[in-house]
Specification:
This protein is of the alpha+beta class. It has seven helices and twelve strands.
């Protein structure tokens, strides 16, 4: 009697519970009820790993898990054991100071990232004999504004010590680290004529084959845009998480290039990510007036003139028939 009772309890313990909960390992789950399908496993997000080097020379590192430019610089700095503040800007698929290969808001999944770090500091004295210095300014999205273009025949073009890629660290000993590119451009425009001022510049550290490089702008420069070797790109945003999306179409690339040209013409800055953002806003605006309202609410800090906004809308939306 006692032995049978033990066998009865043992059989009860080994019997699987209903609905598969608490089943012993190896016991198959009951088949789904007729007319229903088994739940699909969640789709795994691709692991986005990018290769990187220091532009002046280094081993190849691998980075992942960033959602914006500041985090990207932090990951690169961690790989190479440097401070993120050492990184002036990054280029894609070239170690040279090539302003048409700058890392902007999108990275192709196969792109190779080269980080340009701080090199020598230099000071130059400039006398503003004209309203425009001939500089186009951009920034790295992490606190450093730098020179993207030097106009032929301009004031700055005559100063051989100033080069494309130089970061502007101070104007008349007033530090501008942390300022956006449009703020720096505004400061330079507002400097009085015929009064000398001093620029403190930091040039990127150069490898032997980059010494003496001096790039200037020209009307024959190839169009600038995002560099991408694949159809899918990682879109980095100032706010919110990074997103994986299809690369821009040829029409969108051309519209962004036109808006970038307008930014340079009106404000002395170039910013492919800002241009792409304005293209997206213009595509959603039924009129130039609607775009002006959207720009004012989202990008009011830039203080864009009304004629600039109208030209942006016309550049993006003129195929709609020129509605106003």
């Amino acid at each position: 009697m006692r032995r049978a009772g033990r066998r009865g309890r043992q059989a009860q313990e080994e019997r699987p519970m209903e609905n598969g909960v608490g089943q012993e390992p190896g016991v198959p789950e009951p088949p789904p009820a007729e007319g229903t399908s088994a739940p699909r496993p969640p789709r795994a997000r691709p692991r986005l790993v990018f290769r990187t080097q220091l532009a002046h020379g280094s081993p190849t590192g691998r980075i992942e898990g960033f959602t914006n430019v500041k985090e990207l610089y932090g990951k690169i700095a961690e790989v190479f054991g440097i401070s993120p503040t050492e990184i002036l800007f990054c280029t894609l698929n070239t170690h040279k100071v090539d302003m048409q290969k700058l890392l902007g808001g999108q990275i192709g999944l196969e792109d190779f990232i080269f980080a340009h770090v701080r090199g020598e500091t230099k000071e130059v004295e400039v006398t503003k004999t004209e309203d425009a210095l001939g500089l186009t300014i951009t920034d790295n999205g992490a606190g450093y504004a730098f020179i993207k273009r030097i106009k032929e025949g301009s004031i700055i073009n005559r100063i051989q010590a100033v080069c494309v890629g130089d970061s502007i660290e101070a104007i008349n000993d007033h530090t501008i680290v942390g300022c956006r590119h449009y703020e720096v451009a505004r400061m330079l425009r507002e400097l009085p004529r015929a009064q000398p001022f001093t620029l403190r510049l930091v040039q990127p550290k150069k490898a032997f084959d980059m010494i003496g490089q001096r790039t200037r702008s020209s009307s024959k420069c190839p169009p600038e845009g995002r560099v991408s070797s694949g159809k899918e790109t990682l879109r980095l945003r100032a706010q919110g998480p990074a997103t994986l999306q299809e690369g821009p179409s040829a029409v969108e690339e051309e519209a962004a290039r036109c808006v970038d040209d307008l930014l340079e013409s009106y404000m002395g800055i170039r910013d492919c990510e800002l241009a792409a953002t304005m293209v997206e806003m213009a595509k959603c605006s039924p009129s130039a007036a609607a775009l002006a309202c959207a720009v004012d609410s989202v990008l009011g800090e830039f203080a864009f003139p009304q004629e600039f906004v109208a030209e942006v809308w016309a550049a993006v939306c003129s195929p709609r028939g020129g509605q106003e």
